[in-house]
Amino acid sequence: MTAAPILTAASAPSSLAPTRASAHRDPALGLPSAATWRSIGSHLLIPLFLAIGMAFAYLGAFHAPSAHDLPVAVVGTTPQAAVFAQTLNDKGDGKVAVRTVADAAQAKRWIVDQKILAAYEATPEGANLYVSRAASEAGAATAETIFLPIAYQQHLPVNVVDVRPGTPRDPGGQTLFFLLVALSVGAYASAVAIAAATARLRAGWRLGIGAVVALALSAIAVIIGGGVYQALNGNEWSIWLLGALYVFGIVSIGIGLHPILGKWTTPALTALFVMLNFTSSGGVYPASLSPWFFAGLHSFWNGAAWLDAARALTYFPDQSIGFDALRLALWAVAGVLLVVIGAAFTRSRRVLAESARDAQEAETDLVAA
């Protein structure tokens, strides 16, 4: 009598062996299995995070701009001017911060120094509203909505004086903001690419490659913004160096985060340098028209620092950029520290993996013996 054949996984008929397709289907309904749904959900986490984050960031910052502590001035030193300024403050309910200036020359000087966004002067002949669209077109428009009705109530013809307008190539002063967008997207995309390609290199090499890429990306942006569109007003070299420092900060932060966050590095960089960066930069609305959260970020975020410095160089050359350069430098220092921390994290993980492998090999040898 012959023994019955023993079926193994290798010798079982194909109809009995589970197929890859059946492993991903519910056998009763032919639907995707629970494991498939879990895989779909895990792959959609990052897109969902980006969609939710972008919606909250952009709608939260831009859906309903409202003035708070908008810095404006009333021209005049008479008691009537002082009373008028105080009345505006009282009725403004925190929307405006009104001060008085001695004359129109001082008002224009303060606008150029960006101490105020606008100044209102009433004379027997008419009213003058001093603004600067190069500083902020949205700020100038908001000042008009505040002071033009007052002039009409006083039955005064109004003359809007643009103290520092944009250039013919950039009348609205928006080119620098879009240049910031280009630099930021190039920077965080390059950060992930460099981090992946240089994972086995020492921290010094990774930082050096990041610095070279930062110089190159900033040069590309300046060539397009200044050379092609002629919107940088002759400040290409200064803006190139500032752009390189800005990009290096983002690239180094990305390189440092990659060993720690892995695939979540890209969404983390998007959150930092798109969601929070563009909305707090002051490129669309100035800080005094932004919600408090984004106005607070404006005081120290790197995108705001670069845009303030580039705007000063392009339109307000007498204004110091020292504080803005310091902010950019501090972000770059933070990036360098993150690269060092990321390298240490990688080394510690490698040591743990080697220790686990040695322990497993020792256990295998012991069992074999």
Structural commentary:
The chain is an alpha/beta fold and 369 residues long. It has two domains: 93 residues, Rossmann fold (3-Layer(aba) Sandwich), CATH 3.40.50; 180 residues, no CATH class. Helix content is 63%, strand content 7%. It has 13 helices and five strands. The chain has a five-stranded mixed β-sheet, with helices on both faces. α2 runs parallel beside α9 and α6 runs antiparallel to α9. The protein is elongated, with a radius of gyration of 30 Å. The N terminus is likely disordered.
Q: Outline of this structure?
A:
This protein is of the alpha/beta class and 369 residues long. Helices cover 63% and strands 7% of the residues.
Helix-strand layout with pairing:
Elements lengths: L19 H4 L10 H29 L7 E6 L3 H14 L3 E6 L2 H9 L5 E5 L4 E5 L5 H17 L4 E5 L12 H23 L5 H26 L7 H26 L3 H11 L1 H4 L11 H7 L3 H14 L6 H47 L1
Helix pairs in contact: 2-9, 6-7, 6-8, 6-9, 6-12, 7-8, 8-9, 8-12, 8-13, 12-13
What count of structural domains?
A: 2
| Unreliable segments of 5+ consecutive residues | 1-18
So what's the overall shape? elongated
Structural class: alpha/beta
What is the residue-mean pLDDT, rounded to a whole number? 88
Would you report the number of β strands? Answer: 5
Major sheet description: 5 strands, mixed
Strand residue percentage: 5-15%
